[in-house]
Design goal:
A mainly alpha (96); B alpha/beta (381); C alpha/beta (455); B: 7-stranded mixed β-sheet; 19 strands; C: 455 residues; 18 helices; 62% helix; elongated; binds NADP nicotinamide-adenine-dinucleotide phosphate; binds nicotinamide-adenine-dinucleotide
Chain lengths: 96, 381, 455, 381, 455, 96
């Protein structure tokens, strides 16, 4: 098996563990913001898109890549911003 | 308009129908308030307090009765009825369903009589519901009477001289007074159980942390009140209640059915099955008593050592607070019948109309009519 | 070296996700994750030998603009569909990247494992995309919100899935590009089939699941272009999203299977709706109530007969103490006829040792009602019924009430929408600012108190 | 050995020194128990109960007194003293520090007198500590008396007829009776504060959820008891207490210093600053009273409307349980002085020796000697 | 392929560790981790082209035999030193592996990063080893248990560390094997210096920290031999061990720095000891108490005056309810003279609505004392003082007591070792089965109740 | 930088995250068993030892490797067994 693949799998498995563990019990009010934030992170595919759009020579590939960049960008930018809007309800600093 | 507050002369009655605070509210609405001297003394309100808020304190009894509206706690005694101006108005507990004499004379004198007993128990009238406020006082005082009469502690005590188990208190009749009795006895640490014929009472009893005794004898309410039981139901009830009564250290009874004498819940035989030192407080003794062996106004030790008390005038035992609540009820109702400083009896007002037992020579309440042997239909006319 | 920088970005995602899962840190978590993303993009741009700057710039600018405007303007109530749509974009992006890879190289000449990952990224991305579109449509009301069931649904689903698998095997075996596109197409159909049967109320769960998928799709592209930041980020979202999905199901007392099978189990669904009562009331969970309380400055508790029935006096006191420990000002608003006897609430609260100073009369309570963040109505009904104030035809018109509806938020705890002593309906329950928390008061309070520690 | 239980003849005394249960324990240890007829009746124990456990019920008073050991609740009255056999023994509350007459005659008749008042309050003697057990009953009964006398509710009530604020109860003297009073008043829902000269009492008051009033006047204890205050301390105390008293709806006083008459805590002037309807229950009235205006055995309304009650025989109000605890105390002490069915007074036993006020013509307790004007040293001999 | 198998083993470690951190699953977690280890070893043996079977077999047999016998025979009370010693073996193994790598290759001719990792594994392994040896010695009583302080301690430590760093740089620069050995030697000294100043009571924290180190050492060897199972396993233990160390410090209300500086901050240490009272009492934490209660079948609560002073009646009731919900049978044993007035405890518990049936008289309580798992003594003292029963010279001899010492475990909650009303010492506090939980009863009960959810 | 090293670092970082997250709040009674269990896991160095002892030719390396195997074996075997002993106190199945 290709060592890059093995590395990939290792990294994938470990990251999956981290993902499982990092989410403790979440209060329902946070379900939507958390989902939205996680969704924005999944926009990391943006760097794949940039790579695809940026380094290929093939026209179709470039076109698809550019489309991907556009879609991923909506996902990332919209995602983080909208998450932040949702989270503004928790903004108030608690006095003690 | 002139409002009179004669002194209550019934022995043991310590309450007053209007407190200085309530008087002040009326005076602010241009009502002339006339208070008989010493009327509030036993409830902790000296005459000075009334003059202080602008009421007139009169030493003559007659002057206090000579008013457009007389407010009272208890019903007028025969002599007092004569002092009431013909065509005048009176407000208070007027025993409209039990004293034909009073109702008859009020009608004959064309008096407008507003009786708290007849006030509809609807949500909007709760601020005027003197039955409730005074029953609250009675329920509390009944427990104090019971605790005082009982040779046992109410609470449990674990001491170097042994463990005293908590007193077992049984409350029969869980209306307003009964519920208050339950709450008070529980406060003192007794183990409380209670019974009422109205099926919905069980939940209310439990909502106070007491145990509800559920017997098969139940009577759906007519309006908010219980109906009287048939004879067979009653004897079944006695049979089923007997063991609970026998097992109790203290029994407090508060059962009543409007317009009837109080139902018998504890028979002679049941008293005899109780143990020496057990206590019965019959808080319904004024309306005939729930216990066959009942001494109204007295506390006696029965042959087998059972202590039986039939306190009357229970609310007077907390006269200050009972008067304060009563005066608030009076105030709420009076404010409803005074328009621009004039007494206006608006019979289209469900609440006023309900409370109004006699008006312009008519007996208006069904139960009162029944008492006087008048036909029900006449009223409709 | 660049790999280590990517690793740092991935770490930012981990930290961001962790902080996102607690209310106190959520906002900063989002920012950390966002910065990680920014860094990852910058690194990529600098590191790769970018040829087509123009295409990227235009595409990125358009995408960013759409994202900014949309996120700014969307109504708070339209958040769920926006998340669904964004998710669709993410899925589409992954599928497109996979497509670009396909276009750029001859699949047949590529390592098998790369082929497989490209195929997976394409398929999962496509499912995510089409599923999200349907979810968006349902939430936005473009597609019928209710669960759509049709005969032979199960058979169709199985069939389509078999087709997809078959196409995938064929594509890999032949190395034909066309085969890959077929798989992508079938995947689009699967996405649609998957979401259609799910009812509108369950849609957030599906969106969350699709979100988890879009993470997997991203990870797939990561394998394809051998980029560990993508793998880590994608795997993180894949697993965290899955856990979140499961938790969302738990919060609804459902299993994930049950949600996905949706229309098949319509009987169950009906029960669930009935439990939650009329759809026009807002049914809250213990955690919702806990958050509303924990982040309030002033809370007034309005006890009623139900609190006495539940004998929950100690539990309410416990909750009040915990709120006070958090700096919330807590008082009790006592209505004169709450309960079933004069002084009922006094007895009850005295048993729980509530200090007399904390008890407010109706008048005092009404005076501060408008300056109260949360009114917590516990087993009270008639005494907070606005009809007594507003509706002259109501049998209780004229009875003074505690005007809880003047507070910012009203939380009503009772077992159902059943009326109280007066036997009349209570419009309060249907007000916008009202959350209904259904349940026995004792149990409800215990659950809220427990949830406090989470928020 | 013969143990006599004469009937208590003091008016208002309802307790009995030995319950049938306690009698049974003694009979099992071969003691002959003689009970005067009707001795337990007021405490709920009919004669049959005693015969039921094997005791002898005698109708002659003389027969009950004619025993090796007589157990009593209260001290013997003059006539009863004569019935006590010369050289016999008696156990009970014998007022050894306050009644020179009783002590003198007990000594003269060579009686071995075991007085509960003199029992050392050490841990091992807690089972015999009748002062504590009866003070417990007194503290409870004092609150019932106060609640009964007060025209106010103790608990707070929010009702449609207005809000009744809780009664403010002040307890002065937080010994055993005072603490029980605090607990009982709190149970009833009153807002309770309390004061005692002993500094450690503050914590104990707070341990019952009441507010401790801390004044600068403090007196370290001598043993477990408070010492009497100097005159200047006392006037300072009055000055500092006055505002608290004036602000109260109910004041219950239980302060005492052994061998002295009760300290005055409420002066005439303080009573006059109280409001009409306020209540003072002076539970120390039997030993002189803590209130300058005190009517032992009575409840009266003072000129300004303040209700003052000086109940005596408070424990008799819960006669059944008070007797049960008392009998347990008696039993514990009696079992200590009976060896193989014989009465043995072992003066090397710290507890017995402490309780023994007269023995073989000697007055043994220091306070009792002081009372009789005897020198302290003589005892040592 | 073999790497994926290693990955599976690593996953077993993760799962094992997770399960180990909760009482319910701890035992199975240990087993999972153990199986993972077994698998890893088997994989290695099969996969590597083992030449020296004999050496390995003998070494493994000896090691295993020692491990089995030791683990079987060690006394429960000697667990901490055993863990310390085992940890030392782990550290030694890593250092030896690094040494073997050194011996097998010419460092100078090796990649720099491999050199670095070998050096790190060697150094950290050596620190772990020597530190563990000292910790073992202290716990076993071979080395003076108290914190050992000497003048210029700080200076010496700094110096030695500088020497180590210098030697390391020199070794890497020159690639001389000898340099590596020097670093190892100096590391041994550092381990000793690190542990010597720490007091005996803090030793578990140090052992835990060293445990974390041994993980890092293992990870180091993983880098050296490029084995990801080693890296993952080592990193896991390194980070998990560190978190555990921090938690242990928190449980003692100390900071890690404070513990490590030990003797330097003797003033503080003295306070800590005083707080914990006489060293011969067993001071418990809220979690210890929670575990004792949660896993009991029957608990009797013995309230005393301190419970009233703390006004903790509602808190004890709350705890009792939670225990009952877990299936524990809870009763209250009321001593006749507990508190300061007859019936004091009755008033108190009535306020908290404790049912009368749950109150046991002294005699009844004593009858079931021996069949009670935990006696929870709350602010009571004289009434549970065994001297009243056993010591004729005691001033309270003859007073009946609640014989809590007949139960399996006694938990005493009070603020200090101060005496109660009678003013006399209580031998109960020093009994073997007694745990003292110091603190105000109210706060203590709240903390125990909170901790219940963790166990 | 060597790709193996980068992979190693990536894996190390991820595993560290997992380690941090996997340990939630642990009750003190479990501190010692958990420490002991973790310690046993750190005996994973055993496979390094086996590798060192097994595949090297150099005598010193073999000797050190064998010593390492022995030490690691004590750590692993003793560690797991002793942890199990400590954990027996939690054995009882809870009735409900
Ligand atoms: N205070 C008095 O003196 C007095 C005397 C007689 C009558 N009233 C009348 O009683 C009423 C009092 O008003 P209120 O608001 O206190 O009570 P209410 O209007 O009777 O409402 C009580 C509510 O509590 C809920 N409930 C019952 N058990 C519950 C439980 N275990 N957990 C949670 N919720 C529970 C019920 O709803 P669910 O069934 O949905 O749970 C019910 O709607 C007024 O109408 C008043 O006029 C008062
Ligand atoms: N019941 C009666 O009628 C009566 C009357 C008078 C005297 N007594 C005597 O009082 C004693 C009663 O025994 P007991 O065991 O109940 O009480 P105790 O022996 O007086 O012991 C009470 C203990 O509670 C602890 N404590 C105080 N405040 C606390 C707080 N806030 N939180 C936690 N602990 C607290 C104190 O220890 P720390 O300071 O270390 O916290 C103290 O040692 C007996 O000696 C009895 O003879 C009883
Ligand atoms: N409108 C309001 O909001 C309002 C206000 C106060 C009271 N109420 C209602 O009024 C009703 C009556 O209250 P009340 O205290 O004036 O009643 P009451 O004084 O007429 O009777 C007292 C109780 O005795 C019970 N009783 C009668 N016969 C009995 C029998 N044979 N055995 C046992 N119990 C018997 C009744 O059911 C009642 O509960 C209650 O239902 C109460 O809830 C309503
Ligand atoms: N050994 C035991 O275990 C045991 C048992 C019961 C009681 N005691 C102790 O005995 C002591 C006295 O109890 P008691 O009830 O018999 O006392 P008591 O009846 O002699 O006096 C009642 C209270 O009045 C207080 N007092 C006296 N002068 C006062 C003044 N000028 N102002 C205010 N308060 C004044 C006293 O301090 C005392 O608390 C208490 O300390 C109690 O704890 C001990």
């Amino acid at each position: 098996m290709d060592p890059a693949l093995i590395t990939g799998i290792t990294v994938f498995v470990l990251a999956t563990f981290v993902g499982f563990e990092v989410i403790a019990k979440v209060p329902p009010t946070l379900h939507t913001p958390l989902m939205s934030g996680a969704n924005a992170i999944s926009g990391i595919t943006l760097i794949g898109a940039v790579t695809a759009a940026g380094i290929e020579h093939q026209r179709l590939a470039i076109a698809l890549g550019a489309l991907a960049v556009c879609a991923a960008m909506v996902n990332v930018v919209g995602g983080f911003l909208v998450t932040d809007r949702m989270l503004q309800m928790f903004r108030t600093e608690r006095r003690r | 308009m002139r409002l009179g507050v004669p002194r209550e002369r019934r022995p043991g009655e310590h309450r007053v129908a209007l407190t200085p605070t309530a008087a002040a509210s009326l005076i602010a609405r241009d009502v002339e308030v006339v208070v008989e001297a010493a009327a509030g003394e036993l409830a902790g309100h000296l005459d000075g307090a009334y003059t202080g808020v602008g009421a007139q304190v009169v030493s003559s009894e007659r002057a206090a009765w000579d008013a457009d509206l007389v407010v009272r706690v208890g019903p007028p005694m025969p002599a007092e009825l004569d002092r009431l101006p013909e065509g005048g108005a009176i407000l208070g507990f007027l025993t409209p369903f039990t004293s034909a004499d009073v109702v008859g004379r009020l009608r004959d004198r064309q008096v407008t009589a507003l009786a708290f007993e007849a006030l509809p128990r609807v949500s909007a009238a709760q601020g005027m519901d003197a039955l409730s406020s005074q029953a609250t006082a009675a329920g509390y005082a009944a427990v104090l009477e019971a605790a005082d009469a009982s040779p046992k502690f109410f609470p449990m005590l674990t001491t170097a001289a042994g463990t005293i188990p908590p007193a077992k208190v049984l409350v029969l009749g869980a209306g307003v007074a009964g519920l208050q009795a339950i709450a008070t006895a529980r406060r003192l640490g007794a183990v409380v159980s209670a019974y009422d014929v109205r099926p919905e009472a069980a939940e209310q009893i439990e909502s106070l942390g007491a145990r509800a005794v559920r017997l098969e004898v139940e009577a759906q309410t007519e309006g908010v009140y219980a109906r009287a039981l048939e004879e067979d139901e009653q004897s079944r009830q006695h049979e089923l209640l007997a063991p609970y009564v026998a097992d109790s250290d203290v029994v407090i009874t508060t059962a009543a059915v409007p317009g009837r004498s109080a139902p018998i819940l504890i028979t002679h035989a049941m008293v005899h099955r109780m143990h020496a030192g057990a206590v019965i407080v019959d808080a319904a003794s004024e309306s005939g008593g729930n216990c066959e062996v009942s001494y109204a106004g007295e506390r006696r030790v029965h042959g087998n050592g059972v202590i039986i008390s039939g306190p009357t005038e229970l609310p007077s035992r907390v006269a200050a607070d009972a008067s304060q609540m009563y005066a608030r009820n009076v105030l709420a109702l009076v404010q409803r019948v005074i328009v621009d400083g004039e007494l206006i009896i608006d019979l289209s007002d469900e609440i006023v109309s309900g409370a109004c037992v006699t008006h312009r020579g008519d007996v208006r309440h069904e139960l009162a009519r029944k008492l006087l042997g008048l036909s029900a239909s006449e009223m409709e006319a | 070296m660049v790999q280590l920088l990517y690793l740092a970005c991935a770490a930012a995602f981990v930290i961001g996700l962790k902080r996102l899962s607690s209310p106190r840190t959520a906002r900063s978590g989002n920012i950390v994750a966002g910065l990680g993303m920014l860094a990852a993009v910058v690194i990529t741009l600098l590191h790769q030998d970018i040829l087509n700057w123009g295409a990227i710039a235009v595409a990125a600018a358009v995408g960013a603009a759409v994202g900014v405007v949309w996120a700014r303007q969307v109504a708070m109530t339209a958040m769920p569909q926006m998340v669904a749509a964004l998710n669709g974009f993410g899925g589409a992006a992954s599928a497109l990247v996979a497509g670009a890879e396909l276009a750029a190289r001859d699949p047949g000449a590529t390592r098998l494992d790369i082929q497989v990952t490209i195929l997976l990224a394409l398929a999962i991305g496509a499912v995510t995309f089409s599923g999200s579109v349907i979810a968006f449509g349902k939430l936005q009301g473009l597609v019928s919100g209710s669960a759509i069931a049709y005969r032979a649904q199960a058979a169709v689903s199985v069939l389509v899935t078999l087709v997809a698998v078959g196409a995938a095997v064929a594509a890999l075996a032949t190395g034909e590009v066309f085969g890959f596109w077929v798989v992508g197409g079938v995947a689009l159909v699967i996405g649609v089939l998957m979401v259609l049967p799910v009812g509108g109320a369950d849609m957030p769960v599906v969106v969350s699941l699709l979100n988890s998928f879009s993470g997997l799709a991203a990870a797939g592209t990561g394998f394809a272009i051998e980029n560990s930041a993508l793998i880590i980020g994608g795997a993180l979202v894949g697993s965290a999203g899955f856990i979140l999905t499961v938790q969302m199901c738990e919060a609804m007392n459902r299993s994930l299977m049950n949600v996905l099978l949706g229309a098949f189990t319509s009987a169950q669904a009906a029960t669930a709706t009935a439990e939650a009562g009329d759809t026009s009331v807002r049914a809250a969970t213990a955690e919702d109530v806990a958050i509303a309380l924990a982040y309030a400055e002033r809370v007034l508790i309005v006890p009623g007969y139900g609190l006495a029935v539940a004998q929950a006096q100690h539990d309410v006191q416990k909750l009040a103490r915990e709120l006070e420990a958090r700096g919330v000002e807590v008082g009790y608003a006592i209505h004169p006829v709450a309960g079933r006897m004069p002084g009922h609430m006094n007895v009850l609260l005295a048993e729980a040792d509530v200090a007399y100073e904390k008890l407010l009369d109706m008048d005092d309570a009404n005076q501060i009602a408008a300056r109260t963040d949360v009114m917590l109505v516990l087993g009270a009904n008639d005494v907070v019924n606005p009809a007594a104030r507003d509706d002259p035809s109501s049998p209780i018109y004229g009875m003074p009430i505690i005007e809880v509806d003047r507070a910012k938020t009203v939380v009503v705890v009772k077992r159902s929408l059943a009326p109280g002593y007066a036997g009349i309906d209570n419009p309060l329950f249907y007000f916008d600012q009202t959350m209904m928390f259904f349940g026995d008061a004792k149990e409800a309070l215990q659950r809220v108190t427990e949830s406090l520690s989470l928020v």
